[in-house]
Write a structure and sequence with these properties.
It is found in: Cell outer membrane. This is Outer membrane beta-barrel protein. This protein is mainly beta and about 800 residues long. It contains 5 helices and 48 strands. It is globular. It starts with a helix and ends in a 5-residue tail after the last helix.
Length: about 800
C-alpha cells in the first residue's frame, strides 16, 4: 500500500517540476460584444469558426462586461460569430493567429431584430436555468421567485437538486452534495450548512453551478458538487449590497444582510454579515405495528417541536496584489447559531386495538453551534505561457453544546397516572478540528493543459454523550447510553488532470489517488478505552469527459467517473440517542464509505435543450436501517452499508418561449433504480421508478412588474427500505424594480398549496411503520434588496482551500 502511494506521489512531484519548463505554441483570443447602444451584450454566445470551412472550433459565453476569451487556440485563420436572443447574428472580420501571440479582436456590434423585440429585451438576459453537458447553471438574478430568497430555498426549487425535510442538499440520488462557495469549502453540513444557506441571500449570488461529478482536481465527491459563486465586477472602487426580508407562516421569519467590497491597485478588502431570525414548527407522526405471540400492538407517536433560531453568518478577507502575477490572501468566515427547541412527544400504546397506556415526553433543548474557518492562500503565474501555482492552508473548528432535560409522565388507559415521572438528562458537547494543506500546479501544453496537485487533511473529533435518570434529586449516568468517542482521520491525495482540444473534440480526463487512515476510540463510563474503527484504504478515482461538436446546433458529451462518499463524522459516533422509551437511534462506528461509478451520455441542441442518459452503480450504499425487538417492542435505527444500487435514467431540460412576455423552463428526470441488500440485511431485491418534473414559468408585465410560478412534482418511489408517496410544491412570486433599477421589492409565497411533506412507510422483515413528516414550508415573504456604489468593482479573488470534503462532513450531531 505504501509503495502505491509513494509511486503516485513521486509521479505527481516529478510532473510538478518537469512541466515547469514545458513550452507551448497556443494563443488566446479575446474581445468584446456590444449592443447597438454600446452596452455590454452579456449572455451572448461567441463561436470561433475555422476558415475556410466555417467548422466550429469552440464557443464561449459573454460576461457581464461584454468580454469573452478563448484559450489554447492553435495557429490558423479564423472568424468570430456572435449571437444573442432578440438580436441579429454578427460576424467579425477574418484574422490569423500566430503561434505564441495573443489576439484582441475588434468589438462586435449586435443589432436588435426589430422594435418589438427591443422593447421586450428582458428575454435576452441570462435565463434562470442554463444546462450544459454535465453541468446545470442557476442564475438567481433572473428569477422572480428566487428574488429575496435564501440560497437554500433557491436550491430547493432547482431542477437536479434535492433538499429533504432535514435540509440536506443532494445532487446524485440522496447522497450529501459537496458544497463550495467561490470554489472554497463552506465548512458546514447539517444545521450549520442549512443556517449558512438560509442566511445567504440569492441577490448576492452571480450563479450556482450544479455538477454531477467534477474533474480529478476536486475531491472525489460521489454525491455531486454545488459551487455557489458570488457576483464579481471589473474596476477599482467601492460597492455593496443590502437586503432585508420579513416573512410569516405560522410564526415569524426575518433576515437582513450587508456586503461590502473595496478594491485598489494594491489590495482588495471584502466583508459581509447577515442575521437570520426564524421560528418554525415540525410535526412527525409514526404508527409502528408489532405482531408478536398472538398480540398485535400499535405504538403511535406524535412528535411536535417548535424551533427558534438566531443565525449569524460572516465573511471577511483581503487580497494583496504583490505584483501583477502574484496574489496573497487571507480569509476568515463562519457561522454562529443559537437554537432553542421545545419538544412534545406523545406515545399511545394499543394492544389488539384497545388503548393500553400513554407516555408523554416533554423537553427543552438549549443548543449552540459555531463554525469558524481560517484560510491563507497564495496564487502566482510562473511565466507568460500561463503556468501557475496555487498553495493554501486552512484550519476549521466546529463546536457544539446541547443541553436537554426530559420529563416523562405515564398514564393508563383511563388517563390516570400509574407511576412517578421519569426525569432524564441528555448532555452532548462536540468538538471537531480540521487542518488541511493544498498545492497545485497548472501547466499549459501545445494543445491543452496539465493540472496536478497534492492535498493533506487531518481531522480530530471529540464527542461526549452523558445520559441518565435523576435519582433522589441527582442526575446519574446510564452506562448503556453514555459514551465518550474520540475519532481522528488522515487523508492524503494526489491528482493529475489533462485537458485538450482536438478539432471538434474536447477532452478532460484525470486520475486521483486518495489514501485514508482513520481510527475511533470509545471510552465507557468507567474510563476503559477500546478501538472501534481502524480503517486504512487506498482508492484510485479516474474521470473522463469527451465533448464532440457536430455542428453549431448539436453537441455530444460522454462522461465517465468514479467517486466516494465518506460517512459524516457524527454518523460514526457509537451513541444511543433517546427518542422515547421504545424508540432509539444509534451511530455506527463500523460504517464504511460508499462508491459511485457513473457513465453519462448527453446531447445538447442549440445550446439550450440537453438530453442525458446515465447509468450508475453504487456499492456500499448507505441508508437508515430499522431493527426491532418484538418481545421488548423496542425499535432501533442506524445508518448501515445496506447493499448495492443500480440506477438507469434519462434527463431532459429545455426552455420554451410561448410569447414575448411568457417564457418557461422544464426539467424531467426519469429513472429506474434497483436495490439489492447484502446478505446480513435480508433478501431485499426491489426495483422502483422515480420521475421528477420541475417547471418555472416567467411572466413580464407592464410597469416594470414581473411574476414567476415554479413547482416540482415527484412520483411515488422506493428508497433504501422506505416507500415514499408522491410529493411536490408550488411557489409564486411577483416583483418590481425600484430606485432607478438599483433596488428591487418582491412578494413571494412558498408552498402555496401546502403540499410539501414526506409520507413514507416501511414494511421490511419484522418492521412495519407509517411515517408523516411535515414542516412549516408554506410561508409568505416581503423582500427588499439594494445595490450601491460602483457596481463593476471586482469581488474578492477565488480561494480554493482544498478541504471541501472534510468540511462538508463536519456535522455536529443533531
Amino acid at each position: 500500500m505504501r509503495f502505491k502511494i509513494g509511486c503516485l506521489i513521486i509521479v505527481t512531484l516529478s510532473g510538478l517540476f518537469s512541466f515547469c519548463y514545458a513550452q507551448t505554441g497556443s494563443s488566446t483570443i479575446s474581445g468584446t460584444v456590444l449592443t447597438q447602444n454600446n452596452q455590454p451584450a452579456d449572455a451572448a454566445t461567441v463561436i470561433l469558426l475555422n476558415l475556410p470551412d466555417s467548422s466550429v472550433v469552440m464557443s464561449a459565453l459573454v460576461g457581464a462586461t461584454g468580454s469573452f476569451r478563448f484559450s489554447y487556440v492553435n495557429p490558423g485563420s479564423y472568424i468570430l460569430l456572435a449571437t444573442r436572443l432578440g438580436f441579429k447574428k454578427a460576424y467579425s472580420t477574418s484574422f490569423k493567429v500566430t503561434a505564441g501571440l495573443d489576439v484582441t479582436a475588434a468589438p462586435i456590434i449586435l443589432s436588435a431584430l426589430n422594435k418589438e423585440l427591443k422593447e421586450v429585451a428582458i428575454v435576452a438576459k441570462k435565463p434562470y436555468i442554463e444546462v450544459r453537458p454535465g453541468k446545470l447553471i442557476i442564475n438567481p438574478s433572473a428569477s422572480i421567485v428566487a428574488d429575496g430568497q435564501s440560497v437554500l430555498e433557491i436550491l430547493r426549487q432547482s431542477p437536479g437538486v434535492r433538499v429533504d425535510n432535514n435540509d440536506i442538499v443532494s445532487v446524485n440520488g440522496r447522497q450529501d452534495a459537496l458544497i463550495m462557495i467561490d470554489g472554497k469549502p463552506t465548512n458546514l453540513t447539517g444545521p450549520d450548512l442549512a443556517a449558512l444557506l438560509k442566511s445567504t441571500q440569492g441577490n448576492n449570488i452571480d450563479r450556482m453551478e450544479v455538477l454531477k461529478g467534477g474533474s480529478a482536481k476536486y475531491d472525489a465527491a460521489g454525491g455531486g458538487i454545488i459551487n455557489i459563486i458570488y457576483k464579481k465586477g471589473t474596476n477599482i472602487g467601492t460597492n455593496g449590497t443590502f437586503n432585508a426580508s420579513a416573512g410569516y407562516g405560522k410564526y415569524y421569519k426575518g433576515s437582513t444582510g450587508i456586503g461590502l467590497n473595496h478594491r485598489t491597485k494594491a489590495y482588495n478588502v471584502f466583508a459581509s454579515y447577515s442575521l437570520a431570525l426564524n421560528k418554525q414548527w415540525k410535526d412527525v407522526y409514526t404508527d409502528r405495528t408489532v405482531d408478536y405471540a398472538g398480540l398485535v400492538s400499535n405504538y403511535n407517536t406524535t412528535y411536535k417541536s417548535i424551533i427558534q433560531s438566531r443565525s449569524h453568518a460572516f465573511r471577511f478577507g483581503t487580497d494583496f496584489f504583490l505584483s501583477p502575477i502574484q496574489n496573497l490572501g487571507f480569509l476568515v468566515y463562519g457561522t454562529v447559531n443559537n437554537n432553542n427547541i421545545g419538544k412534545d412527544n406523545t406515545l399511545h400504546i394499543y394492544n389488539n386495538g384497545n388503548l393500553d397506556s400513554t407516555i408523554l415526553a416533554r423537553s427543552t433543548v438549549d443548543r449552540d453551534i459555531s463554525n469558524i474557518n481560517y484560510n491563507l492562500n497564495y496564487n502566482a503565474k510562473l511565466d507568460k505561457t500561463g503556468r501557475s501555482i496555487t498553495a493554501n492552508a486552512t484550519y476549521s473548528r466546529a463546536k457544539r453544546h446541547s443541553d436537554e432535560y426530559i420529563t416523562n409522565t405515564f398514564a393508563d388507559e383511563n388517563g390516570f397516572t400509574y407511576r412517578d415521572p421519569l426525569l432524564l438528562q441528555n448532555i452532548s458537547p462536540t468538538k471537531i478540528n480540521n487542518w488541511s494543506g493544498f498545492l497545485a500546479l497548472s501547466n499549459p501544453l501545445t494543445n491543452g493543459k496539465l493540472d496536478m496537485g497534492l492535498k493533506y487533511s487531518y481531522t480530530t473529533t471529540d464527542n461526549n454523550l452523558v445520559f441518565g435518570p435523576q435519582i433522589n434529586g441527582i442526575y446519574t449516568v446510564n452506562t448503556t447510553f453514555s459514551n465518550h468517542f474520540l475519532f481522528n482521520e488522515k487523508i492524503g491525495a494526489a491528482y493529475l488532470n489533462y485537458t485538450a482540444k482536438f478539432g471538434k473534440f474536447d477532452f478532460d480526463g484525470g486520475l486521483r489517488g486518495e489514501y485514508t487512515n482513520n481510527k475511533g476510540t470509545s471510552l465507557n463510563a468507567a474510563g476503559v478505552a477500546y478501538d472501534v474503527t481502524p480503517h486504512k484504504y487506498f482508492n484510485l478515482f479516474p474521470t473522463a469527459i469527451l465533448n464532440y461538436r457536430y455542428n453549431d446546433k448539436n453537441e455530444f458529451a460522454l462522461n465517465l467517473s468514479r467517486g466516494i462518499t465518506r460517512p459524516g463524522y457524527d454518523k460514526l459516533n457509537p451513541f444511543l440517542y433517546f427518542v422515547d422509551l421504545y424508540n432509539y437511534q444509534s451511530g455506527n462506528p463500523y460504517l464504511k464509505p460508499e462508491y459511485h461509478n457513473l457513465i453519462q451520455l448527453s446531447h445538447t441542441y442549440n445550446s439550450e435543450t440537453v438530453t442525458s442518459l446515465r447509468a450508475e452503480i453504487t456499492t456500499g450504499a448507505t441508508f437508515p436501517f430499522y431493527g426491532q425487538d418484538d418481545a421488548s417492542k423496542i425499535s432501533l435505527s442506524a445508518d448501515v452499508n445496506l447493499g448495492r444500487v443500480y440506477t438507469y435514467g434519462i434527463n431532459i431540460n429545455t426552455p420554451v418561449k410561448f410569447t414575448g412576455w411568457w417564457t418557461s423552463n422544464y426539467d424531467i428526470d426519469a429513472s429506474y433504480q434497483r436495490y439489492i441488500a447484502y446478505a446480513q440485511y435480508g433478501n431485499l431485491n426491489k426495483g422502483t421508478a422515480d420521475v421528477i418534473v420541475t417547471s418555472t414559468q416567467t411572466f413580464t408585465m407592464p410597469g416594470g412588474f414581473a411574476a414567476q410560478l415554479s413547482g416540482r412534482f415527484e412520483t411515488a418511489t422506493f428508497y433504501g427500505i422506505k416507500q415514499f408517496r408522491p410529493a411536490g410544491f408550488m411557489d409564486l412570486g411577483i416583483s418590481k424594480q425600484i430606485l432607478n433599477k438599483m433596488g428591487r421589492i418582491s412578494l413571494v409565497g412558498n408552498d402555496i398549496f401546502k403540499l410539501n411533506r414526506d409520507r413514507a412507510s416501511i414494511n421490511y422483515q419484522n418492521v412495519n411503520i407509517n411515517i408523516l413528516d411535515r414542516r412549516e414550508y408554506r410561508k409568505i415573504y416581503l423582500n427588499f434588496s439594494y445595490r450601491f456604489g460602483k457596481t463593476t468593482v471586482k469581488s474578492s479573488a477565488t480561494h480554493v482551500t482544498g478541504n471541501e470534503e472534510e468540511q462538508n462532513r463536519m456535522k455536529p450531531p443533531q
